Amino acid sequence: MFDLGVYNVVSLTGWLGPVKRVTAMVGTVIPERIVDGELMKIEADDTAHILLDFGQSVFAVVTTGFTMQSYRSPAIELYGSEGTIQMMGDDWRPRGYELWQNNVGAWQVFEDTDIYWPWTDGLRHLVECINRSARPIITPEHGYHALEIMLKAQEAGRDGQAKEIESTFILPDFSGGDKEIEAHLVHDRSY
């Protein structure tokens, strides 16, 4: 969950806002694994199914684990009253998205616009924010919120009880007019 699921938790909360409640099923499927040629006992959960409740009947499910050898489903899929959007690839290696709009009546495919997008681009963004004294898109409060979700998901997976999330954060405003946020969303390839 903390190695792979964190990407989807941060992305979903970045789109949908703070989570109000979480429940989960977690466990260790492979109790021993060979790492760097040595047999290791696995002490962390290697599989998790997490249900996020954002309030107002908005829900999300995150499935993550080292037991998944391969998959063909979208990394993230969002359903709305007017359509569906599927992120192709993974958060750390996007490959574009597919969009279904009810008024169009067909899937539209939007290939990745920057095939050289590095998964470490968030670090570059943070350094730029520090250099310009700007607020990053993902704030420490957002990161703390994601951490609380994952810790409480582990608790819920152990005792079977949904957990209230106490932390919150403020979503960035992408409605336009904020030149600093717009500048963060542009990938500078001059380096």
Give an account of the 3D structure.
This protein has four helices and ten strands. By secondary structure, the protein is α+β, with helices and mostly antiparallel strands. It has one domain (5-184): 2-Layer Sandwich (Dihydrodipicolinate Reductase, domain 2), CATH 3.30.360.10. Strands 5-4-1-10 form a four-stranded antiparallel sheet. A four-stranded antiparallel sheet has the order 6-7-8-9, with no helix packed on it. A hairpin with a 3-residue loop joins strand 6 (76-79) and strand 7. The radius of gyration is 18 Å and the shape is globular.
CATH superfamily, by name, is Dihydrodipicolinate Reductase, domain 2
CATH architecture: 2-Layer Sandwich
Number of helices: 4
Helix-and-strand structural type: alpha+beta
Q: Any key phrases for this structure?
A:
191 residues; alpha+beta; Dihydrodipicolinate Reductase, domain 2; four-stranded antiparallel β-sheet
What is the topology?
Layout lengths: L4 H12 L4 E7 L4 E4 L2 E4 L5 E9 L2 E8 L10 E4 L3 E8 L2 E9 L4 E6 L9 H12 L7 H20 L3 E2 L14 H6 L7
Antiparallel strand pairs: 1-4, 1-10, 2-3, 4-5, 6-7, 7-8, 8-9
Helix pairs in contact: 1-3
